[in-house]
Specification:
Layout (H helix, E strand, L loop, with lengths): L1 H15 L2 H8 L4 H15 L2 H9 L4 H19 L5 H30 L3 H27 L4 H23 L29 H13 L2 H14 L8 H21 L5 H6 L1 H17 L5 H32 L6 H29 L1 H31 L10
């Protein structure tokens, strides 16, 4: 599965780096059309997380994953076959749906096979995935020096082929035991209906707070580049350097930091220093508007470091708590609903950081403070939820092997 993460993210890095350029220069879409394409496909992709998780509670997980990877490959290849806008919307939406569903199911697979070591597994997976993103991005950057239509098409084809490779690798993975799919005998009591995350108000409240905590993603993808581009102090070449810094920090520090959240209680405790990291990042962004070029560069770098620390801490906390709060018999459904937080952030995040930029230093201070307060709120919310979970008796399950 670690090889799968590396190959998947390398392919995704190829396409993510050039998707806007491909639709603009090769297909000839306008800015409004590209924006609409991204918005519509992202909105449809939101459904992939809950639907994928629910299906995985009923069917073998590896088979569902293979089907989703094939869907992603076909959707990517289909983009090469047309310049019809309606078809481009449909193919992009199908790819987005498969991407969000596959992300949730990969997490579910890791949860089932790693057991109590799931936090460390998550850290290693994120490290490998970030290395893949960097490798794909560097390859795309090298290919873009050619600047021809063929170069763009080969990058998209490389993305599609990576999904084919991932599907073939998944075939070699054993099916993990599933608490939701057990072997029953005539002596067993009648099975009870699995828990429904849509009726679990506590879990839905937790997912709502997660949507806010995932906003660090929008800072690096939209916030920092736009803030630097509209600054008359910071050098514009600083934006890609801060992205490189973010990747290097995750590769170097994600695994060592994971040991501080190795248990559910420890992960919950990390929400307090996480709150401080978000607040510091917002203040540093605000201070970057003061002084000259050196001061702006210094504070922007400090902000990037703070938000990257927040990203790594939240990744550890989110992985552990999203699983700990989910009943074993409905892990797929619950993790699918949790996946909505990251999907929704893709729509809310750009808007939030744009408002912060438009408001100026005060906006960035409020941005960081809002996420910090949400961390503290989640700290109290999760305590109540975990106390209820502890009262339930975990079911005894039988592997299908």
């Amino acid at each position: 599965m670690l090889w799968i993460a590396l190959v998947d993210r390398t392919g995704s890095g190829l396409w993510a780096a050039v998707s806007v350029l491909y639709f603009t220069y090769v297909i000839g879409l306008s800015v409004a059309q590209v924006g609409t394409l991204a918005a519509v496909s992202g909105a449809i992709g939101i459904a992939g997380a809950p639907l994928g998780g629910r299906i995985a509670d009923r069917l073998p997980l590896t088979r569902v994953l293979i089907s989703l990877q094939i869907l992603r490959a076909l959707a990517s290849l289909a983009l090469l076959t047309t310049d019809n806008y309606a078809l481009l919307l449909a193919f992009s939406a199908a790819g987005s749906f498969g991407d969000r569903a596959a992300n949730v199911l990969t997490k579910l697979y890791a949860t089932r096979v790693s057991g109590p070591d799931r936090v460390r597994y998550q850290a290693v997976t994120r490290t490998v995935a970030n290395a893949g993103w960097a490798l794909g991005g560097l390859t795309a950057a090298a290919a873009l020096t050619i600047g021809t239509t063929t170069a763009y098409q080969w990058l998209l084809a490389g993305d599609a082929l990576s999904f084919v490779a991932v599907a073939l690798l998944t075939v070699r993975c054993a099916e993990p035991p599933s608490p939701a799919r057990t072997i029953a005998t005539s002596k067993d009591p009648a099975p009870t209906r699995p828990a429904n995350p849509w009726r679990d108000r506590g879990y839905l409240a937790y997912v709502a707070t997660e949507t806010v905590l995932f906003l660090d993603d929008a800072v690096f993808k939209v916030g920092l580049p736009l803030w630097i581009a509209h600054s008359d102090r910071a050098p514009h070449g600083l934006a890609p350097m801060l992205m490189v810094l973010n990747n290097l920090m995750v590769v170097a520090l994600q695994v060592p930091l994971a040991r501080f959240g190795a248990t559910t209680a420890a992960a919950r405790s990390l929400l307090l220093p996480l709150s401080g990291a978000f607040a510091l990042g917002g203040v540093a962004m605000a201070l970057s508007a003061t002084g000259g070029a050196f001061t702006a560069t210094l504070f922007l770098t400090a902000s990037a470091v703070a938000f990257t620390m927040a990203e790594m801490l939240h990744a550890t906390v989110s992985w552990e708590l999203s699983v700990a709060l989910a009943p074993g018999t409905a892990q797929g459904a619950y993790l699918g609903v949790h996946g909505l937080a990251q999907s929704a952030q893709r729509s809310i995040g750009p808007l939030a950081v744009t408002v912060a930029i438009a408001t100026g230093p005060l906006g960035w201070t409020a941005f960081g403070a809002t996420i910090a307060v949400t961390c503290v709120f989640q700290h109290h919310l999760v305590r109540d939820q975990l106390s209820r979970t502890a009262l339930s008796v975990p079911p005894v399950t039988v592997s299908e092997h």
